[in-house]
Write a structure and sequence with these properties.
- Helix content is about 30%, strand content about 15%.
- Helix 3 packs across helix 4 (about 155-165), helix 4 (about 155-165) crosses helix 7 and helix 8 runs parallel beside helix 9.
- The protein is α/β, with parallel strands linked by helices.
- Helix 9 links the parallel strand 6 (about 260-265) and strand 7 (about 300-305).
- The strands form two sheets. Strands 3, 4, 5, 6, 7, 8, 9, 10, 11 and 12 form a ten-stranded mixed sheet that branches.
Length: about 400
């Protein structure tokens, strides 16, 4: 596959290769908004501070001069200048598109914040994360940087096709395409060509999806944000915190800092050259590093966190069940835990009916267990359409009693 680069002028370090837009010819791919050309950087030895821009602002922090001492007057003047220029990004959160989640976390994601999403296997953490990334990328001025240690980019693309087929928040299941349906559409039309039969649909992937009535609308919706979603198949052996920070810094330079970083998932990030003593030490290094990326590069960072063995055995997963150290609690600004509603409904509730509760098997409870800017221990529920890799983002507060629903954050 051919590639293009955001910043070919970055000397002394490897270029940041990005795949061509999967639904648009490379010649018609719009370039990021024109920004002042960044000062060329060279790779810095580990432990040394990054070079500074004119005026003493770190190139790793487009705004704010990370790690440089400044008086309160300087901070106030800089904030004042941004407001005068109409730059209100510090005051306007980026909605996740999940309601009422956005209401509980102050309207959405904010720069410099680290958000952790945890839960048991198969509860829908990747589905929710990719859908939120898609919702943010749909904004014409916002870019998403999605690192997956679990799935290749093509699989994420296929998931997005299935999601777009039901078009959340519309969620029109009658037009929904499942992963199996998508594969059959592609294989069946290519088979016609190989067998010498005249096919009515183009032989290219884009042609097949564009001309098939089941996939054409989803392809059009995906094309609206495909230029602004950057996917990386990360490696647990080589994609380190330093690599993530470097790639994010280059994206910030190319997009004016309008980037949200998503990581799937935290415990798989490579740690090098550090030599952690154990799993807890490794997670401490990683979570502190992700928080540093959020703070120093002035971007929101959203990361999935796996539950530990005890958490997987528990009836209800909590923040303290996430695999690793207490740094997950200390460093995060927001921590959200997902549980299947059917499994955590209280059997002691007066209205509990084992037959009626089966309807809740496809519902997932999102619990905000840490919220630095608001109330914690808030439960809300969203319906999962797993075959289409999508949640109905029109959620609601949980009305039924849940087990362990009186756990209070320490």
């Amino acid at each position: 596959m051919s590639t293009r680069r955001f910043t070919d002028d970055l000397s002394g370090s490897e270029g940041f290769d990005l795949p061509d837009d999967p639904v648009t010819p490379a010649s018609s791919v719009p370039t990021p908004p024109a920004k002042p050309a960044p000062t060329p950087r060279t790779a810095q030895p580990a432990g040394e501070p990054p070079p500074r821009r004119a005026g003493g602002v770190s190139s790793a922090s487009p705004r704010g001069g990370a790690h440089l001492p400044r008086t309160l007057t300087q901070v106030l003047n800089e904030a004042n200048d941004r407001v005068v220029k109409g730059d209100l990004i510090d005051y306007v959160p980026m909605p996740t598109g999940f309601d009422p989640l956005d209401g509980f976390i102050g309207g959405g994601l904010r720069k410099t914040e680290l958000v952790l999403l945890g839960g048991a296997q198969g509860v829908g953490k990747t589905i929710a994360t990719l859908q939120i990334a898609r919702n943010i990328a749909m904004r014409p001025d916002q870019y998403v940087f999605y690192l997956s240690y679990e799935h290749p980019e093509t699989h994420l693309l296929h998931r997005l096709f299935c999601l777009e087929s039901i078009n959340p928040p519309e969620v029109d299941l009658s037009r929904g395409v499942k992963l199996r349906d998508l594969y059959q559409i592609i294989v069946a039309n290519r088979a016609k060509d190989f067998m010498g039969k005249e096919a009515s649909i183009g032989s290219s992937l884009q042609g097949i999806l564009r001309d098939n009535p089941k996939t054409s609308a989803g392809l059009q919706r995906l094309a609206k944000y495909s230029d602004r979603m950057i996917l990386v198949k990360a490696s647990p052996a080589v994609t380190t915190l330093r690599a993530i920070k470097e790639m994010t810094a280059r994206l910030c330079d190319a997009t004016g800092g309008n980037v949200v970083v998503f990581v799937d998932y935290l415990q798989k990030i490579a740690v090098y050259p550090e030599r952690p003593r154990d799993e807890n030490d490794k997670v401490t290094i990683i979570v502190e590093g992700l928080k540093d990326i959020a703070m120093s590069l002035d971007v929101p960072v959203w990361s999935i966190v796996a539950a530990d063995r005890e958490g997987l055995k528990s009836k209800r997963v909590h923040l303290f069940h996430l695999r690793g150290s207490s740094a997950l609690d200390y460093e995060s600004d927001i921590a959200i835990i997902m549980n299947n509603k059917y499994q955590i409904m209280s059997k002691d509730h007066v209205s509990f009916n084992p037959y009626a509760t089966k309807q809740f098997r496809d519902w997932v409870v999102f619990t905000i267990e840490k919220n630095r800017a608001g109330r914690a221990m808030q439960d809300m529920e969203f319906q999962l359409h797993g075959q289409h890799f999508a949640f109905d983002p029109r959620g609601q507060k949980v009305q039924q009693q849940l087990i362990d629903d009186k756990v209070i954050e320490s």
